[in-house]
Amino acid sequence: MAPAGPSATIPDETTLLARMQAGDDDAFEACARAYCGRLLVVARRILQNEEDARDAVQDALLSAFKGIAGFQGQSRLGTWLHRIVVNAALGRLRSRRRHPERSIEELLPHFGEDEHQIDPPTPWKATSERIVQQQESCEVVRRCVSQLPEIYRTVLLLRDIEELDTEETARILDTSPGVVKTRLHRARQALRSLLDPYFREGEV
Amino acid sequence: MNCREFTEFLHEYLGGNLPAEELAEFEKHLAECPWCVAYLDSYRKTIQLERAALAAPEDAPPPADAPEELVQAILRARPRAS
Question: Nearest Cβ partner of A188 from B4, B47, B54?
Answer without folding.
Answer: B47
